[in-house]
Amino acid sequence: MPLISLPFLFLFLPASLVFHFFAARLGERLRLCALIAISFSFCALWDIRAAAVLAGSVAVNYGIGRLLEQAREDGRKVLSNSFLATGVIFNLGVLAMFRYGDLIATAVDSLADTGFDAGKILMPLGVLVFSCDQIAYLVDLHRGKNGRPDILRYAAFVTFFPRLIAGPLLRYGQIKDQWTSRAPDAEDFAVGLTTFAIGLAKVILLADLVAPIAATVFSAAGSAERIEFFAGWTGLLAFACQIYFDLSGYADMAIGLGRCFGLKLPTNFRSPYRTTNIADFWLTWNITLSDFLRDYVYRPLGKSPHSLPRGLSFIAAMVLGGLWYGTSPMLIAWALLHAGFILFYRIWRGARRHFDGLSSFADFRFVRLLSIALTFMVVTLSWVLFRSPDADAAINMFAALSGRNGAFLPFDYAVFLGPFAEFLQAAGIDFVPADGGLLLRAWASILLCLVVIFALPNTESLLSSYRPLLVDKRPAIRKIFVLRWSLSPIWSVAIGVLAFVCLVCLNSVNPLLHWRL
């Protein structure tokens, strides 16, 4: 059952909130049982087989965790390591079978000509999220963190349904002390529903607004059509806006639902397009995934007895970050490109430390704005690899962006521009019969998205007075002006109108980009 659907919004969600609210007032264990029942019902309504896979994964990982903890307490390090390895291999096997089974089957079939139909492999809801969560849990348990939870706490942690679609990833230590808190109150519902409504608006009103623009251009690129300069940049900027609002919108919805159930989840996006360098971009983009890759891939690979060189362990972590989004080889190319960007930035940062003038120069406001623009442009150009279905489509897009396929504007614009049109023609821009209104509407949509991205506060900042998230020590991104949500009639009406508009536009929402294959 999708989060953005009338049955979920008007039937499943209200019934779940009421059921959980009264169960939470009767004690912790009934609250846990209610959350588990709600989460498995959500999965079963999506696909009963997905609920079975989730239940099996929870049972196996909990059993391995108990054995691992007992071996660690007894000082049997070899046995504890063996249980950890078993758990990690099990979760990676589940991922390989269900998430990447099509990729593996296709590769095997191309080598052995087995005729296997990869399309028959089930894709359980949230398999990537709950597998990564449980790997982190077992590793933390092996490191002596968290202690040994009972089965109800563990199952509620793994199965909490709002996160299963698109995260954020969660560690048991971040939530273990929240089960005993009181039942959600009026403030929790107000903050949670406001956060959910903002996420809903990001997906329906913004991501969906520019999604057709990006789809049209990238589809043409994949069909080997010649795309001119302005069309290429229109499609690329539309996609840059789409992917941000799509992913951050679903994260906001999950975080908002978590608050409605009395739980605070970690932030996952913190204005990544406003960062001044590529390293900070990855500290604010899909934060829980970046943290997972750092703590459970990059650092272990770089510090193990048979550790890889730091550069190779970093590249391995980045490649896995690319595979998080799907199975296309272009996603690996995208991840490797970002790895190169970050390594180049680290070299530049190291060299800059030897020149005091450069460090002070970077503090000027103009230089900061230029750094934000440059980082945004680099990240946006890299989305070509992420979005393109193959290398030929990516090459076609880059040819368009560089102007190799020419640059054209509608005839209508020549009349409006007057003498300036001759200057544009001298610069190589031709005027052709085309729908000028279509291009204007596309750029109006993109500009609206860019204003929201760069001028308005993010969800975390907007609701900061009510601490909507788990505490995070990262510095907040600077804002152009301060805007704060509060429990007031004006804000209630504003959020109510926003939610109503979202419901009116509900039928036009696009499929979740995050889990495209």
Task: Note down, in words, how this protein is organized.
The chain is an all-alpha fold and 517 residues long. The chain is built from 22 helices and 2 strands. Helix 4 runs antiparallel to helix 6 (127-142). The longest helix is centred in the middle third of the chain and has 37 residues, at 186-222.
* SS summary, helix count: 22
Q: What amount of the residues lies in strands?
A: under 5%
Shape: globular
Quaternary structure type = single chain
The strand count comes to: 2
* Average of the residue pLDDT scores: 87
Supply the helix-strand structural class: mainly alpha
State Rg.
25 Å
Q: What is the string of helix and strand elements?
A: HHHHHHHHHHHHHHHHHEHHEHHH
Strand order of the largest sheet: 1-2
Main beta sheet = 2 strands, parallel
Helix content: 55-70%
* First-last Cα distance: 19 Å
Uncertain spans: none
